[in-house]
Amino acid sequence: MSCKLVSIILLTWNAKPFLSDCFDSISSQDYPNLELIVVDNGSEDGTADNLRSSLEHKIKIDWKLELLPENTGFACGMNHGIALSSGDYIFTLNQDLVMNPDFISKLVSEIESKRDRPVASVTGKILKWNIDTINGNSIIDSTGHVIFDDRIVEGRGKNEPADRYNEPSEVFGVSAAASLYSKKALETVSVGNEFFDNDFFSYLEDIDLDYRLLFRGFESRYVPDAVAKHAGGGSGGRKSFLIRFKAHTNRYLVWIKNEERSGLMKDFFPIALQECLQLVRTLFTSPLLLLSWFYFPTKAIRVAKKGRSVYADGKEYGRLDDFKLKGRLFRKIA
């Protein structure tokens, strides 16, 4: 394994309950060549006031701090951090996640492995974490991303026992909560300085990136012996109506940018069933989210243009069939 520089990009927003554990986890990493880029996304709980002193006391590697005046979303905040980075590899990290000391080392070893296709992204076994308990981290949060024929993308193995998924494998994609990316691969599928698409604001931006890397001929990998634990929802975004409003149509932006009409028509029935159920759920729980469709056409035009740019040299759309699973709704009902 080489010792190329890994740039950890940590995006914080209202992170006070998690920062101490997160910084301890970063400091414990045994990989010898790291830098840390912290981008605070307009925190409102005093996080920004404590970040510099916390970094000075807890972090022994080179670090940079960027304080944004407002919440720009996950995608834009991550792009700010990547722009400040110097590493050959980019490690994206959520504030509510802690890693075993060899987590990054294991991912670097895998991303540098020789395979038929270049490896663009790697993740490990991420377990669910209740920060109020010492034990109980026995349920999987994610072992990468899995995609279904209705185009729902989920954490692979989510809510299954932690002793499963013990073999390394190729996966559809990885969660940006804790994953390592080749910066060269990111540059191949980016538009300008948008590695994550700013039009997504928050949620599904890593799934959009999964698609782009897959269709441009890269592999995403899973390493079972790289273990971390994730509290989930640590930024509180899912409770914010404004963030959910901005993210409500992201699923369709993913399709416009990456999917082919022929593929969507091939899976018309599972997609249509899922969309009907989603519409009913939204009408009963958060009908105001439907107003987001008034802003959709402008975003869709921009996203479609980016998709044409990314795939100007071709797209391996057929690769999707290698990962697509059937019958998600029937499994869920069962």
Question: Secondary-structure blueprint of this entry?
Answer:
Elements: E1 6-12, H1 19-27, E2 34-41, H2 47-58, E3 62-68, H3 73-84, E4 89-94, E5 97-99, H4 103-111, E6 119-128, E7 140-142, E8 145-148, E9 153-155, E10 169-171, E11 178-182, H5 183-189, H6 205-215, E12 219-230, H7 241-247, H8 250-258, H9 261-266, H10 268-285, H11 296-310, E13 324-325, H12 328-333
Parallel strand pairs: 1-2, 1-4, 2-3, 6-12, 8-13
Antiparallel strand pairs: 4-11, 5-12, 6-7, 6-11, 8-9, 10-12
Please explain how this structure is put together.
The structure is a single chain. The protein has one domain: Spore Coat Polysaccharide Biosynthesis Protein SpsA, Chain A (Alpha-Beta Complex). The mean pLDDT is 92. The chain has helices at 19-27, 47-58, 73-84, 103-111, 183-189, 205-215, 241-247, 250-258, 261-266, 268-285, 296-310, 328-333, and strands at 6-12, 34-41, 62-68, 89-94, 97-99, 119-128, 140-142, 145-148, 153-155, 169-171, 178-182, 219-230, 324-325. The chain is built from 12 helices and 13 strands. Helices cover 36% and strands 22% of the residues. It is α/β, with parallel strands linked by helices and 334 residues long. The strands form 2 sheets. Strands 1, 2, 3, 4, 5, 6, 7, 10, 11 and 12 form a 10-stranded mixed β-sheet that branches. The chain has a 3-stranded mixed β-sheet with strand order 9-8-13, with no helix packed on it.
